[in-house]
Inverse folding.
DNA sequence: AGGTAGACTCGTCTCAAATT
DNA sequence: AATTTGAGACGAGTCTACCT
């Protein structure tokens, strides 16, 4: 293949992406599925910012794990309230600071000033002096500011108690001045706060909003939204989205992390593109999952400890999954395939009860996923799936089956 | 450890009666 | 005539008790 050919093949390659940006972590979606209450709570806390601006300095604390929508909620809220204020003739600015990057008091304040575009020299002033300059500037120009301190834990750690105290109790010294700075703090958990002195802590915790990990149903809605934004129509089916949502949802054993769910969708799309496929297939998702969740690789280790019949069952599951091309297959189908495979190997198949035991075992070892059928299926059944890439897994399973069979013959 | 039988449970499916 | 509703059929795991 000539260089030219290679270039062409890359350029002309079919793409499934309409707008990849919608899958990057920085992307701010137009709406926030399942975060409505949090926005409402924020609105409740900050409403006097609009109704009686300057009467008090408002603060809220957002707490939750990774990828549960804290940052994006703050951003969207900031954007909206800024525009709402504007309609009221109020100059309210929103500033988002990532304390992971700016983790000292000096860095935070200068970043605030920079983002506001205020002409204050950033060098040669102490944080305190900068703050005073900032306050007098916004007083002069009648500006209000909502500052989000994202990853506040870092700030607490490196900047320490005094810095937090300074920020939080800023207005204590000047009770009569208009309160123009308002804060949203974002942290993963509240442990970092315990290093603060109790009064400062209670000051911050006045308004606490908790973010719970996403359930798979919620992730589904989020992923559908992103899919519609990022992919061409009919390139990613609902089944695919469901599969990702189920493997990441907190209620299905995942982490409830939307960020990684979206990343899986991105990587799956890239895998499809890489293979020149015009649609995203389950196999692409499985590949993506192994990249984002290296612990899946661990699964292949655990295979070593399985008994022969469990291996055969895994193989049966792999084959039915592949034959069906769906994310889940019914236990009955797998059992049938299992019996067929046993026949091939000339082994006596185990009966139903035992199969059921195996399935439970495999489930507990996290080698396969199992869930009870809900709506849409006649009767009650257990649906089985595998997260790991099928091809690689089957190869491994085959090896192990052969090994078991030979050792068994030798012992006989 | 593996198997059998049978009762149990749940949720969909079907179809017809009831309702609008 | 069209839609809604609900009882019972039915499918398919699940559980239990007991056997080999």
């Amino acid at each position: 293949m000539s260089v030219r050919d290679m270039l062409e093949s890359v350029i002309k390659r079919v793409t499934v992406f309409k707008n990849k940006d919608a899958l990057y972590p920085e992307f701010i979606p137009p709406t926030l599925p399942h975060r409505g209450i949090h926005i409402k709570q924020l609105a409740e806390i900050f409403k006097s910012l609009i109704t009686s601006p300057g009467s008090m300095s408002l603060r809220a604390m957002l707490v939750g794990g990774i990828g549960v929508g804290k940052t994006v909620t703050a951003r969207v809220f900031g954007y909206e309230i800024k525009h709402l204020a504007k309609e009221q003739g109020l100059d309210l600015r929103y500033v988002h600071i990532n304390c992971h990057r700016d983790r000292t008091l000096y860095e935070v304040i200068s970043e605030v000033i920079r983002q506001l575009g205020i002409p204050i020299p950033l060098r040669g002033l102490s944080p305190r002096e900068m703050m005073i300059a900032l306050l007098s500037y916004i007083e002069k120009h009648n500006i209000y500011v909502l500052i989000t301190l994202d990853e506040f834990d870092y700030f607490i750690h490196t900047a320490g108690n005094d810095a937090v105290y300074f920020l939080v109790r800023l207005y204590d010294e000047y009770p009569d001045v208009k309160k123009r700075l308002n804060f949203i703090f974002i942290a993963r958990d509240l442990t970092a706060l315990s290093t603060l002195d109790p009064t400062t802590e209670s000051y911050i915790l006045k308004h606490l909003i908790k973010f719970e990990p996403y359930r798979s149903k919620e992730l589904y809605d989020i992923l559908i939204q992103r899919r519609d934004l990022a992919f061409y129509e009919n390139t990613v089916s609902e089944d695919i989205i469901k599969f990702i949502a189920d493997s990441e949802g907190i209620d299905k054993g995942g982490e409830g992390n939307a960020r990684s769910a979206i990343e899986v969708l991105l990587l799956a799309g890239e895998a499809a593109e890489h293979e020149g496929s015009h649609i995203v297939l389950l196999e692409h998702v499985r590949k993506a999952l192994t990249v984002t969740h290296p612990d899946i690789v661990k699964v292949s280790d655990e295979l070593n400890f399985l008994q022969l019949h469990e291996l055969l069952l895994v193989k049966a599951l792999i084959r039915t999954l592949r034959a069906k091309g769906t994310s889940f297959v019914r236990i009955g189908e797998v059992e049938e395939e299992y019996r067929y495979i046993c026949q091939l190997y000339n082994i006596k198949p185990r009966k139903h009860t035992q199969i059921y035991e195996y399935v439970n075992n495999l489930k507990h070892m996290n080698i396969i996923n199992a869930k009870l059928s809900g709506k849409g299926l006649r009767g009650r059944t257990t649906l089985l799936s595998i997260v790991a890439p099928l091809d690689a897994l089957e190869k491994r399973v085959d090896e192990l089956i052969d090994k078991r069979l030979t050792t068994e013959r030798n012992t006989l």
